[in-house]
């Protein structure tokens, strides 16, 4: 009799455990499905060209159109956790055009739909970028060198590698230097021009960062020879001198 009572209890516990198993499996699956994605930690920067060459027209570089087509894919695909902005103007370093940084992975509750929250933050960033562009267009000029230095200084010195989207045709035109007047036809002449600029301005603070140009050299589409010299100039500036890595994922 003693044995049968214990045996009955064991059978009861076994049946109860078996009955709970499907519910426990369902709960585990629900927890798995609702688990939050990994944090976004990559610092990003966006540079927008407010110069006249970026005005909307059929033949030239349309800065606003390029910005609208490239920015959201860039922010999502590069896993940007924050984004800073910088304008290209006649004097980019001292330009008064400034918009606030956007946190692309805002604080949230456990029950928050984080995917939707991040999408809204990226939409906010797109609006801020257009604000920066609108302001930059009121100041004219095209100090690409200074804008690269400014955005580089905004990136944190430690942590994940910073990623920079530079929406510009890179037609450097400021009060002291116009790239269209420089002779870039040989490697030696390009080197001498860059040496002079480095001596006067220093090297843009983008060492080790990933740079994604959008529109680089578009003004030379019909002049392939000049386009090659122009590309070689900026390749040496960005990769050779500044020690950044250049990618052409967005056009």
Summarize this, please?
This protein is of the alpha/beta class. It is 46% helix and 14% strand.
Structure explained in plain terms:
By secondary structure, this protein is an alpha/beta fold. Helix content is 46%, strand content 14%. The chain has helices spanning 2-34, 63-77, 114-136, 144-154, 187-201, 224-241; strands at residues 42-49, 80-88, 102-103, 163-167, 173-174, 177-178, 210-214, 245-246. The strands form two sheets. Strands 3-2-1-4-7-8 form a six-stranded mixed beta sheet, with helices on both faces. A two-stranded antiparallel ribbon has the order 5-6. Mean pLDDT is 87; it is low at 16-33.
What's the layout of helices and strands?
Blueprint: H1 2-34, E1 42-49, H2 63-77, E2 80-88, E3 102-103, H3 114-136, H4 144-154, E4 163-167, E5 173-174, E6 177-178, H5 187-201, E7 210-214, H6 224-241, E8 245-246
Helix content: 40-55%
Most strands sheet: 6 strands, mixed
Work out the number of β strands: 8
Q: How large is the count of helical segments?
A: 6
Q: What string, H for helix and E for strand, traces the elements in order?
A: HEHEEHHEEEHEHE
Characteristic key phrases:
single chain; 251 residues; alpha/beta; 6-stranded mixed β-sheet; two-stranded antiparallel ribbon; 6 helices; globular
């Amino acid at each position: 009799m003693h044995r049968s009572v214990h045996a009955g209890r064991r059978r009861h516990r076994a049946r109860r455990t078996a009955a709970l198993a499907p519910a426990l499996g369902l709960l585990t699956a629900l927890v798995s499905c609702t688990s939050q994605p990994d944090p976004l930690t990559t610092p990003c920067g966006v540079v927008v060209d407010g110069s006249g060459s970026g005005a909307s027209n059929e033949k030239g570089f349309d800065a606003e159109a390029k910005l609208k087509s490239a920015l959201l894919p860039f922010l999502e695909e590069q896993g940007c956790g924050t984004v800073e902005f910088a304008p290209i103007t006649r004097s980019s370093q001292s330009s008064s055009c400034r918009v606030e940084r956007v946190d692309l992975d805002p604080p949230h509750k456990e029950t928050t739909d984080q995917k939707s929250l991040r999408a809204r933050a990226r939409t906010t960033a797109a609006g801020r970028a257009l604000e920066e562009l609108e302001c930059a267009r009121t100041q004219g000029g095209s100090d690409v060198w200074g804008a690269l230095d400014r955005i580089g200084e905004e990136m944190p010195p430690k942590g994940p590698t910073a990623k920079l989207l530079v929406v510009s045709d890179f037609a450097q035109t400021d009060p002291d230097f116009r790239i269209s007047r420089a002779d870039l036809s040989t490697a030696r002449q390009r080197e001498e021009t860059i040496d002079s600029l480095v001596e006067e301005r220093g090297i843009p603070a983008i060492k080790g960062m990933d740079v994604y140009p959008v529109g680089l050299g578009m003004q030379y589409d019909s002049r392939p020879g000049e386009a090659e010299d122009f590309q070689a100039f900026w390749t040496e500036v960005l990769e050779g001198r500044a020690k950044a890595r250049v990618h052409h994922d967005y056009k």
